Amino acid sequence: MRAQAPSGFLRPEPSRFFGRVDELRRIDHDAIGGITAIVGPAGIGKTRLALRFGITRGARFASVWFCDASDAASVTEMIAIVRHTLAASDRIDSPSDPIAVERAIAARAGALVIIDDVEHLLPDAAVTLARWSQAHSPTPGDLHRQRRHGVV
Known about the structure:
The protein has about 150 residues and is α/β, with parallel strands linked by helices. The chain has six helices and four strands; from the N terminus they run E-H-E-H-E-H-H-E-H-H.
């Protein structure tokens, strides 16, 4: 059995987790390029599901990064949160430069990046998330799923 992948801000699960096997399989299938954002109505357990996915699927990835975008008031702030989580230290003018995040993701080949609580930033955030997904792993299968499903 492989050891748990290194992670950034992937906190321990707060309680026992039951069920939701079909949802975890769908995330497995739809996760594009190692970038995952679970979207849905408030209060249905998206954060819990995202944590479970990161913890149980973490061994398949070189590292797992959990980014909480709940405090982001804009896509620019979401970018800054993801960049901070990835500890991107590129020398750039703006801490919210989406290209810096693309470089930080590219530098973490094989990583899983989970971005939680982005509903309030849609549809604007979808463009940025899709761009990061393409930059991370632009395989034909990934691009086909992205066009078919949108951002996971």
